[in-house]
Amino acid sequence: MVKKITLLGATGSIGVQTADIIREHPHEFKLVGFSAGKNMDITRNLIAEFKPEIVCVQRKEDAKDLAAEYPAVAIVSGAEGLIDIAVYEADILVNAVLGSVGLEPTLEAIKLGRTIAIANKETLVTAGHLVMESAKQFGAAILPVDSEHSALFQALNGEKKDQASRLILTASGGSFRDLTREQLKNVTVQDALNHPNWSMGSKITIDSATMVNKGLEVIEAHILFDFAYADIDVVLHRESIIHSMVEFQDTSVMAQLGTPDMRVPIQYALSYPDRLPREQAKRLNLAEIGKLNFQEMDYTRFRALQLAFDAGVAGGTMTTVLNAANEQAVALFLNEEIKFLEIEEMIERAMDQHEVIATPDLETILHVDAETRKSVKNMLK
Ligand SMILES: NC(=O)c1ccc[n+]([C@@H]2O[C@H](COP(=O)([O-])OP(=O)(O)OC[C@H]3O[C@@H](n4cnc5c(N)ncnc54)[C@H](OP(=O)(O)O)[C@@H]3O)[C@@H](O)[C@H]2O)c1
Q1: What is the C-alpha separation between 55 and 34, in angstroms, rounded?
Q2: Which of 75, 143, 202, 338 could form a disulfide with 342 if both were Cys (CB 3.0 to 4.6 A apart)?
Q3: Does CATH number 1.10.520.20 belong to domain 315-381?
């Protein structure tokens, strides 16, 4: 049976690679609807190739143009349009949109019991408890797309969770892994966008350089797999060949390995519980690689990772603050309004100023998110 796929964030790095997988397996998957932001070139190409039934774009004026060009396609726009895509009839919703804008569409799809392949980690960090509780209530499966979480998911597959003792996430270290904090003072946006192992969207590339990305992933792992923060470790692994590991109580460690290629975890989330061939993909050749390196994580050097653990342990709205402060600060950095190290300084200040609300509802989360962004912008003054 062909699985119908809807895709949020089709024009981004994960979105385009999801389209690659759908293209590679036309007898398995069909793209019935997608959302884009502002990139109309990729949007038009995707409409022409996949002939979806419904498309959402961010701006009303783009929606008007597309509706005139493609009368057979339902064209929607804005935040409500994202929800229209999320609830459109499909077997799997891939959420590859950027930022906490993905939260409400995810919750609406969960209410319909939809299977969700989630790349959009900000949604889990900002309101993970709401997502997981309602997924349980409505019987919706949440499948990880992030390579680390796909690795953990695979390593835990078929095991008894209470016999697993530790999650070990690997971190490449990002573009500045060999720089001291002193050297970080004057790095530029261009330097930060130059990731050694992965080609990704600009926000997550900056997040990798600050190590906030690994922090968001630690929180994502806590949410998805329900492990205490004390039982989640991060190890620096420069080559990004081991995507993450699970240690069991008998000291066995299960790891998932592969060449760094996001299409592998994307495809696994779409084909789960099956695996499909990837004829053209580069195979892992350990003899060619020769050596894998590991290094203990330095939480003073990578201050933002410590902040993420602190936010996770504080719980409640503190992870919403971490995420919103980071999204706002990264936007300021990409716009060259602040320096690189100011990203983590702003996150820390926003966290210091916040009083945690333990089990926030959606309204509280949206309020805290908006207020945090405002207060980070005000720090500029
Ligand atoms: N890239 C990776 O390898 C990777 C790996 C693991 C996890 N992730 C996670 O996957 C998510 C997407 O990352 P990415 O690297 O693919 O990001 P990206 O390349 O920046 O793409 C983001 C997508 O979201 C759309 N978008 C952005 N803001 C929007 C808004 N306000 N309303 C509607 N649509 C909006 C963009 O549209 P336009 O471009 O058309 O404006 C684009 O389609 C992130 O949560 C990231 O952490 C990414």
Answers
A1: 5
A2: 338
A3: no
